[in-house]
Write a structure and sequence with these properties.
Blueprint (H helix, E strand, L loop, with lengths): L2 E6 L3 H13 L4 E7 L3 H10 L7 E2 L2 H7 L4 E4 L6 H9 L3 E4 L7 H14 L4 E3 L7 H9 L6 E10 L2 H4 L14 H19 L5 H26 L4 E8 L7 E7 L5 E8 L7 E8 L2 E7 L10 E7 L4 E7 L4 H15 L7 H22 L10
Parallel strand pairs: 1-2, 1-4, 2-3, 4-5, 5-6, 7-10
Antiparallel strand pairs: 7-11, 8-9, 9-10, 11-12, 12-13, 13-14
Helix pairs in contact: 4-5, 5-11, 9-11
Length: 375
């Protein structure tokens, strides 16, 4: 069965990843409609991917009102809680890019709506968990008591440099400023729910854009492989003049294992690089991810073990595309009600970790939180 879908949000990830993969998987999906707050963007991308003018929209609500869809790919910026809820209440399955939401209250509303629907309708799109290197690592990990240390390092150049190869459509500023302001106000409101009134804007940006907008991928990956981070001991930020600068998070993932996450915004760094290293009592594993939007570029898994008299090093690469695998899993959820690996419960666990990070950083900076994160 082909799943009839609409795509809301036609920015970089839609153009470079999801729309090309929908075309590739013509056997699973039929692209019926697109929506973007920019009418010109909707028109240009619609034409590029064969969506006729009568099926191009500016808002998700307009698209849902006019179309009969099995599913929506929700690829807009900001918190996705309200828009995802709109889909679920209409019985339309939603493939939701990160972050799921900025606040726990939004996620709780999604959970309630999905429970009333009686079938899985929210698919949280963490593509790393569909990466063949990650799947292999999960199969061969030793038991938790043998894990000793986990290190995550992200070197994050500017978005434009990461996507220079992709020949994307340049956005046109034709969105009504009042619409932009309403969207910003909605995000400000749920950020206030999460953090409380009066938190500095730079702190809010770090929470929404870095912790929930980027590091959430690693927070979820660690949860998938080893379980949620169980404690946050310290959070430090520096080089903030680079906006947002660098952040270091230290904590625990089990009684026996500690974790450090390092995220550095380096606008002119030559290549995006993300490495996850796990040391255990008899060896090590290291995942090195390449540019996120470069299709079929393999993640490298390095396996260090003993060969009896010395050290053995094995390198595994697989060109199977993680983004494509997660679209296949979304199809299975829509057609056969197969529960996704990540839904509202997993999204909630990861936002809780994000709020714990915010709480520790606030304490270090002398900021008082009064929202969800304070509890």
């Amino acid at each position: 069965m082909k799943v009839k879908i609409g795509v809301a949000g036609l920015g970089a990830v839609a153009q470079s990843v999801h729309l090309p993969l929908i075309q590739r998987r013509w056997d699973l999906f039929e692209l019926l409609s697109v929506a973007d707050l920019s009418a010109s963007q909707s028109a240009r991308i619609g034409e590029q991917f064969g969506v006729t003018p009568e099926h191009r929209y500016q808002t998700l609500a307009d698209m849902l009102n006019a179309e009969t869809l099995d599913g929506v790919l929700l690829l807009t910026s900001g918190s996705h809680g309200t828009l995802a809820l709109e889909c679920i209440r209409r019985g339309v399955a939603v493939f939701c890019e990160k972050p799921l939401a900025f606040s726990l209250s939004e996620i709780d509303a999604l959970s309630d709506a999905e429970r009333k629907a009686g079938t899985p309708l929210l698919f949280l799109a963490y593509m790393k968990e569909y990466d063949p290197a990650v799947s292999r690592l999960k199969r061969i990990l030793p038991k938790p008591s043998e894990i000793r240390y986990v290190n995550v390092e992200v070197l994050h150049p500017s978005g434009s440099s990461q996507l220079a190869y992709a020949n994307l459509q340049t956005p046109i500023s034709d969105i009504d400023p009042a619409i932009i302001e309403r969207a910003k106000e909605a995000d400000r409101a749920v950020t206030t729910t999460a953090l409380g009134e009066g938190t500095p804007q730079a702190f809010r940006n770090l929470y929404t854009n870095v912790v929930l907008g980027s590091l959430i991928h690693d927070i979820s990956l660690i949860r998938y492989l080893l379980g949620s981070i169980t404690g946050i001991d310290d959070v430090r930020i520096w080089a903030e003049s680079d906006d947002p600068g660098s952040i270091e998070i230290s904590g625990t993932v089990s009684e026996q294992a500690r974790i450090n996450l390092h995220w550095h915004y380096l606008a002119d760094y030559p290549r995006y690089r993300e490495t996850v290293t796990i040391h255990h009592t008899t060896g090590s594993f290291a995942l090195e991810f390449t540019v996120p939007y470069l299709l079929n570029a393999p993640t490298e898994l390095r396996i260090v073990s003993s060969d009896g008299v010395g050290e053995s090093n094995e390198i595994v690469r697989d060109i199977t595309e993680a983004f494509e695998e997660e679209l296949i899993a979304f199809h299975a959820m829509v057609v056969d009600s197969v529960p996704p690996s990540n839904g509202t419960a997993e999204g909630r666990a990861d936002v809780i970790t994000g709020q714990r990070i915010a709480r520790v950083l606030a304490r270090r900076q002398g900021i008082t939180l009064t929202g969800e994160a304070s509890r």
